[in-house]
Amino acid sequence: MRVIKLDSLSDFKKLLRLVGSTKEGIEIMKKKMKIELFYIKDLKTPAANILKQDALSVGAELAVEKNTILCKNETVDSILIVNEKQREALIKKEKIQPFGLKELSVVLDSFKPKEDKKVEIMGVINANDDSFYIKSRFKDKKGVDKIMQMVEEGADIIDIGGVSSRPGSSSVSEEEELLRIKTLIDVLYEKKIYERVNLSIDSYAPKPIAYALERGFKIVNDITGLQNDEVCKLCARFNAKAVIMHMQKNPKQMQQNPTYDHVITDIDDFFYQRIGKAEKYGIKDIILDVGIGFGKTLEHNLILIKHLNHFLHFNLPLLIGASRKSMIDKIVSCDVKQRLPGTIALHLKAIEQGATIIRCHDVKEHYQAIKVQKALQETLI
After folding, report:
1. Considering 359, 364, 371, 374, which one is annotated as catalytic?
2. Which of 46, 78, 105, 346 is the most buried (most CB within 10 A)?
3. Is the pLDDT at 54 greater than 70, yes or no?
4. Is 325 considered catalytic here?
């Protein structure tokens, strides 16, 4: 007899099929094979005591402060440790419990196991002179040539913008923004590039967005998260996908001491509000972006990438864009030209956590890295 310890991120279904498990057996066993962790903040103390006992009864565990049973404090923080089968059993139990546990059961039920979906690469094109990475700046014919190169390298989406959103940058008029991207959009439309790759307009201004959507663009990448009602109307009118990104304050001020009660729950609340607004205007396709570097400290950014799978409960695609951003320089001192290795490390972790759209400057390198990651995930024993 020989024993082999396996990677906990292995494809459970494929492993079970490898040893000859039945279809019915696979469905039962796969729910027991992966541990899930839930950090529950401000849980009422009586609820914590009930949840502790219910968790133990189904073979799970709730970690709490040792004096919780004495109910000295009104609320406690806790960590729920379960597998999928235990979570399902616990949800049924908490539906009839008081002290907010019924509401907790609804939240726990929203966290479905993530599906294995194709990862799309979104290449970045900046039609302006002040974006933070000089090699992303292209205009007119050079822009078209670069786009075609990115398509050949594996890009699924091209994101085109005319205004820098780097920290400290200032906005420009809608007319100026449109002037910067108009020629490039016209050439793309004339050559019917929209038939070869999905085109995204990186803007929150109605005029440039309308111009792009009228000429084959299918995605609106809005760093303000659909703050402008007119942008909502345009997305609905053209049946465009809307990227709702979170940003604290605005590009000029966003990195001036960004603070949160908790970065995950605060962004969660923001997404709930903006998704509701999008649906109110009739927007059918929504993508979520936590906004790495947009009003976040290094710790905020790392937390969001490491725990990105939290936002899968919205059941919407997750976009991540950490490409060559300064958070990498805060970990390993380097300038923007040297940040590709750090970028790929962050993006591969985000994919592991459920991201399915990667916004990046370096398409060829990301295509290779994602292919290798996929091959590792699919390899058994």
Report:
1. 359
2. 346
3. yes
4. yes
